[in-house]
């Protein structure tokens, strides 16, 4: 499962840049600051999948103790099958598409409406430019990837919650420190302060999160229903096997006694 999460988040990260290539004439213009390319997998989205992989319990310990035959369902490595990995890739494409086009049409107007504005002291009009557009996409990607781990988790524990909290706090501190020491000519200079003062940015955050995670929520609901059905079905099969063995033993016992 952890490997699939890494596929998902990296596909989403690449998809937004592929879309941008069509709008900048394949000029190779970078959507993000160079540091963000390094920190995306190094600090922003590394810890939550790692903790998820170490602490996640697909089935509770009590269920496994009461029904040890459920290990048969868990030992088939279905998470590494091609069709399942393809679903994660498609999910990453969906996340990247939602993040990019919501930012494009809502923050930047989609070349049909005026750009969103933010409040800046001493300036009468401040619009979202290309640098703010790229940083907004990056923030939404990180938030949806972290929320994606929460939606998938069937075993929310203290380690996972602390890991998510530390991921947010540490990376927020890193980016605010980086933008504060950047020169005014840098593309990331005070960008997060400007985004924080943009009302449309905050309105887009729940919109992006809900739209991006909607397939994951539906998948989680269907997956839980499927596992409940499989657990019940396995119990029925187990009872039938016991009855069959018991009937066979009784039959053999009667044959031996008659002989």
UniProtKB/TrEMBL annotation:
<feature type="domain" description="P-type ATPase C-terminal">
    <location>
        <begin position="4"/>
        <end position="227"/>
    </location>
</feature>
<feature type="transmembrane region" description="Helical">
    <location>
        <begin position="7"/>
        <end position="23"/>
    </location>
</feature>
<dbReference type="InterPro" id="IPR023298">
    <property type="entry name" value="ATPase_P-typ_TM_dom_sf"/>
</dbReference>
<feature type="transmembrane region" description="Helical">
    <location>
        <begin position="158"/>
        <end position="181"/>
    </location>
</feature>
<feature type="transmembrane region" description="Helical">
    <location>
        <begin position="82"/>
        <end position="112"/>
    </location>
</feature>
<dbReference type="GO" id="GO:0140326">
    <property type="term" value="F:ATPase-coupled intramembrane lipid transporter activity"/>
</dbReference>
<dbReference type="GO" id="GO:0045332">
    <property type="term" value="P:phospholipid translocation"/>
</dbReference>
<dbReference type="GO" id="GO:0046872">
    <property type="term" value="F:metal ion binding"/>
</dbReference>
<keyword id="KW-0460">Magnesium</keyword>
<keyword id="KW-0812">Transmembrane</keyword>
<feature type="transmembrane region" description="Helical">
    <location>
        <begin position="193"/>
        <end position="214"/>
    </location>
</feature>
<keyword id="KW-1133">Transmembrane helix</keyword>
<dbReference type="Pfam" id="PF16212">
    <property type="entry name" value="PhoLip_ATPase_C"/>
</dbReference>
<feature type="transmembrane region" description="Helical">
    <location>
        <begin position="132"/>
        <end position="151"/>
    </location>
</feature>
<keyword id="KW-0472">Membrane</keyword>
<feature type="transmembrane region" description="Helical">
    <location>
        <begin position="35"/>
        <end position="52"/>
    </location>
</feature>
<protein>
    <submittedName>
        <fullName>PhoLip_ATPase_C domain-containing protein</fullName>
    </submittedName>
</protein>
<dbReference type="GO" id="GO:0005886">
    <property type="term" value="C:plasma membrane"/>
</dbReference>
<keyword id="KW-0479">Metal-binding</keyword>
<dbReference type="InterPro" id="IPR032630">
    <property type="entry name" value="P_typ_ATPase_c"/>
</dbReference>
């Amino acid at each position: 499962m952890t490997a699939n999460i890494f596929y998902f988040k990296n596909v989403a990260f690449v998809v937004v840049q592929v879309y941008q290539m069509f709008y900048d004439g394949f000029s190779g213009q970078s959507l993000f600051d160079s540091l963000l390319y390094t920190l995306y997998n190094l600090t922003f989205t590394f810890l939550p999948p790692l903790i998820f992989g170490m602490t996640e319990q697909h089935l509770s310990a009590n269920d496994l103790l009461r029904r040890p035959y459920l290990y048969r369902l868990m030992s088939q490595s279905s998470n590494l099958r091609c069709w399942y990995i393809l679903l994660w890739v498609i999910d990453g494409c969906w996340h990247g598409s939602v993040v990019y086009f919501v930012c494009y049409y809502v923050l930047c107007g989609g070349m049909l409406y005026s750009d969103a504005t933010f409040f800046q002291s001493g300036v009468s009009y401040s619009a979202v430019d290309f640098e703010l557009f790229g940083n907004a996409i990056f923030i939404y990607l990180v938030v949806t990837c972290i929320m994606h781990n929460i939606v998938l988790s069937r075993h929310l524990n203290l380690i996972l919650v602390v890991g998510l909290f530390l991921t947010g706090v540490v990376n927020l501190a890193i980016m605010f420190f980086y933008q504060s020491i950047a020169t005014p000519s840098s593309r990331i200079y005070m960008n997060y302060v400007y985004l924080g003062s943009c009302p449309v940015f905050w309105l887009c955050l729940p919109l992006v999160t809900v739209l991006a995670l909607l397939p994951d929520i539906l998948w989680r609901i269907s997956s839980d229903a499927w596992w409940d059905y499989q657990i019940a079905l396995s119990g029925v099969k187990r009872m039938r096997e016991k009855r069959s063995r018991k009937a066979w033993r009784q039959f053999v016992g009667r044959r031996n006694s008659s002989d």
